[in-house]
Amino acid sequence: MCGIVGYVGHREVVPLLMDGLRRLEYRGYDSAGVVAVENGAFQTSKAEGKLDRLKEKLETAPVHGQYGLGHTRWATHGPPSERNAHPMVDSRGRVALIHNGIIENFLPLKKRLIAEGWTFKSDTDTEVVANLISSYLDGDLPSAVARALSELEGMYAFAVVTNTGAGQQIVAARQGPPLVIGLAQGEQFLASDPSALLVHTKDVIFLENGDLAVLTPERVTVQDRHGRPVERPVQHLTWDPIQAEKGGYKHFMLKEIHEQTQAVQDTFAGRVDFENARILLDSVQITEDELRHIERIHILACGTSWHSGLIGKFLIEHIARIPVEVDYGSEYRYRDPIVDARVLAVGISQSGETADTISAMEAARERGARLFTICNVLGSQATRISEGVIYTHAGPEIGVASTKAFTTQLVALYLLALYLRQVKTGAVERHYLDALAHLPLAIDEVIRLQEKPMAEMAKKHHRAENFLYLGRGINYPIALEGALKLKEISYIHAEGYPAGEMKHGPIALIDEDLPVVAIATGNDLLFEKVKSNLQEVNARDGVVIALTDRDEEELGGICDEVITVPTVSPLLQPIINVIPLQLLAYFTGLRRGADVDQPRNLAKSVTVE
Ligand code: M6R
After folding, report:
1. Cβ neighbours of 592 (radius 10 Å)
2. CATH no. for residue 481?
3. Across the chain, what does the average pLDDT equal?
4. Of 206, 225, 246, which residue constitutes the final position of a domain?
5. Contact between residue 211 and residue 184 where contact means Cβ atoms under 8 Å apart
6. What is the mean pLDDT of the segment spanning 505-517?
7. What is the structure's pLDDT at 242?
8. DSSP assignment letter at 284
9. Do the domain assignments include residue 582?
10. Stated pTM of the model
11. Domain range spanning residue 412?
12. What is the pLDDT of residues 58-74, one digit of tens each?
């Protein structure tokens, strides 16, 4: 939510800022802006809407400088407009500031500053911080920022520059949303997310909460919340910068759907000893003996990650026989959960920065739970507060709709379930591992076989006003995920439902205009049950679309359309089943002219509550 970039060094700053913003635009696209400092003067440019609007503006009215800041906004305080775009310059024109997050006490601060003679041009909480810092500025920017910080309540990451003769300097502070500094020779970079830095450097420092950093071309210094100098470790990123490009695909989402074969393989590679049938998890600081004392698992997540948590419940309960509860991050800490040291809380998050998930994890920890995370971003907040991490090696996921993050989370949950079984029983059965080894080929097959049919299906149904997705058992969360993908990408209203629940309400929706996508894979009792549910749809003239690994005849010859998928182990089948639904959402969004990589009102990483 909001992207921050900064640069100090010897190069012309604006092209660097614009390149960084392009890579961060998925974090928010309500407005964008840059400030460059040249000969002690601010040159700013801002535009409402997507980054291209700012680009056009800069082409006709360029700005220059050797250091500066850039911002792409997801609006919280004040509507999307140029007036509310960052950077915000204080009313005496001495500091320029960009910000991600929410300042909760901005109103009393604003009233006080107005009484002191400071003026405001925007509706934002950000401008309050700019004026507050300027009110304390007496030659030394870091001290003014530190003083202002001590008065701020809320979650924020921000970066500030001044034109009052401090030389090339950026001051950055973090309390909540992420900030990462990229280190290079004679120049330094700042960003909300490493994907904006990868083309310049892979050596990075992740700021901790409460940190204040000062970047000059020669060095980076960091002080903690008490003003004490601290050394934050330099981490070397392994992500390939090319992965953060579209690589010939029209959209990141389509590219990321295709990357799932590799991403899934990368997520289990090195963690499974196929020869000795062992799961090898690194980055786990909880001893095996401590894990044996775990009696319950609480999974905490939001959105798509919550859907993977629902499947995780099936996996862990079936494989490791430990009871699992799954909560939305935003609900957990407000429901007074029963937690103690026998609970393992597992936060699932692609970004590792989702405020609701992090708060829920912290709430679990405060009540005594042990903390674990499944996460895609190295060094993110979720990984730093956890005692155990399984990284999903999905690489950067840029499309706002989660695809490869979801399927790799499912692999990570499968590994976690197997690991817990191994800890409890001393061994994992080989068939679980063989099933995993077979998975990448099946993913490759389903993408290859279903891309065109899903484009055709989208052509046929893209004018539908509603969609219903049905699934049962471990595939019920896939119905939820299919519906979420469709609504966020195409803006078609879609509902996911457990097929057996349809008769308790949603059946009233069914008519000849309602496409009903039912997941009917497997050959167990639930398959038979879904078949009956499909009969119920058919009897009411609904459009029956079956996603199945069985022969069409086995479904009773009542399907209007069939999506055929390969069969894998029932515990891994959701990974295969979701892929055609991702493709269907993608092509439907495309047909409807929606911006599939940056759907309206959304942001990739939701760092506000
Ligand atoms: O980074 P996280 O996994 O914590 O993000 C959670 C949700 O915001 C995210 O999954 C969201 O629902 C996606 N837009 C879904 O495609």
Report:
1. 15
2. 3.40.50.10490
3. 92
4. 246
5. no
6. 88
7. 64
8. B
9. yes
10. 0.78
11. 255-428
12. 999 999 998 999 999 88
